[in-house]
Amino acid sequence: MVKQASWLCAIMILIYSSELLADNASPSVKFNGFGTLGITHSDERNADFVADPFASEGAGYSQDWSAEVDSRLGLQGTLRITPQLSSVVQVVSEKRYDGSFSPEVEWANIQYEATANLSFRIGRMVQSSFLASEHRKVNYATPWVRPPQEVYRLIPVANFDGVDMHYRYYIGRATNNVSVNFGGGSVNYQTGRIDASDSWGISHRTQWGDTTLFASYGELKVSADELSQFFDVYRLFGPPGEAIASRYEVDGKRTGLLSLGISYDPGSWYVMGEWARSSSPSLLGDNEGAYISAGYRIADWTPYVSVARATAVSNTSDPGLNAALYPSPFAEGAQVLNSALNGLLSSRLQQNSLSIGMRWDLRPGMALTGQYDHIDMRFNSSAGLINQQPEFAPGGNINLFSLALDFVF
């Protein structure tokens, strides 16, 4: 249903835009695209490393060397209808929750520029939650093979259907951009769907010479049918089960995300970093992530290094129901529920990572990047790995090697 609605939104935008063309003598159409051809190796053989937490498989257990972790192709069409009115449709093909590479609509919106500094959009857009949010899938525009997951995984639903406003203003030599958005979105995964409703966000970006400062805050309501059904079973165990369900249920509770970022890039080198915290009075809990990355450009070569950390601020375990209070088979059922609950709580990212890479800009619009990642899974975390096998042991270390050819056209 969501996929059909996305395509319907894109088609309606194109139809509306084409109708306006008849009344305008000088429209313009621009097509461009981006992509990544990547391959990734993981030394963890009992689980899969994935860049997208909703992908069906990745590197490690499913494939020793996987070309599906980072590979994608994106195509974008921009139609300038009048000097003030334009529309954008962007379609991206990458590894999906169902194992396919079927294309999906990432952007589909109409923009109206009321003034040179004020614009409005309606349709499908991407939340401006982080420094690289709006081009996070255009790997050529980022210095790494993939954005640090310690920060960029904090929000599960990245794009939304709704409205936003952008306003630009100047203070001295500083250019400031404010963005405000309202809407909702959803994302499918292998066994269900996550919906985000009543979302809103505000972000501020300041460009002052070689320095960029960024701040963002937003809230959304998250719901997932599987989690609702899970906590409904807890409620069958009377008041103790009701108390646990009320404490951890996700539906109807708001999740907040605060992020701060800074970048300094004088040309020959760069340094950048971000910190973010998500907070929810539910199973999602309170989580923090941060990274700092630096690189030095030598002609067409850019060696770089990044360090990152993810921490679950709230508890990652719970004693759950007291199985001794219930007769068989309810006692055994309580133990199964408690085990599942603690599995969900401990699945949140808790890790330190070190990334070392080299980027080669071999020609305009094309770059080859090699990256090594060492991930230390802290407090028996599973580092966001999927397809975990019975032999998989949380905690320990993971070593990744990735090679990616990024291009724009």
Structure in words:
By secondary structure, this protein is of the alpha+beta class. The protein has a single domain, classed as Porin (Beta Barrel). 15% of the residues lie in helices and 49% in strands. It contains 5 helices and 19 strands. Strands 1-5-6-7-8-9-10-11-12-13-14-15-16-17-18-19 form a 16-stranded antiparallel beta barrel. Strands 2-3 form a two-stranded antiparallel sheet. β14 and β15 form a beta hairpin. α3 (225-235) runs antiparallel to α4 (238-248). It is globular. The model is unreliable at 1-5 (pLDDT under 50).
Provide a short characterization of the protein structure:
It contains five helices and 19 strands. With 409 residues, the protein is an alpha+beta fold.
Q: Keywords for this structure?
A:
about 15% helix; two-stranded antiparallel ribbon; alpha+beta; globular; Porin; 16-stranded antiparallel barrel
Structural class designation: alpha+beta
Order of helices and strands: HEEEEEEEEHEEEEHHEEEEHEEE
Number of strands: 19
What's the CATH topology name? Porin
Distance between the termini: 32 Å
Architecture in CATH?
Beta Barrel
Q: Major beta sheet, specifics?
A: 16 strands, antiparallel, barrel
Overall average residue pLDDT: 92
Order of strands across the biggest sheet?
Answer: 1-5-6-7-8-9-10-11-12-13-14-15-16-17-18-19
| Tally of helical segments | 5
CATH class: Mainly Beta
- Unreliable spans: 1-5
> What fraction, in percent, of the residue positions are helical?
10-25%
Radius of gyration: 23 Å
Tell me the domain tally: 1
Q: Strand share of the residues?
A: over 45%
Overall geometry comes to globular
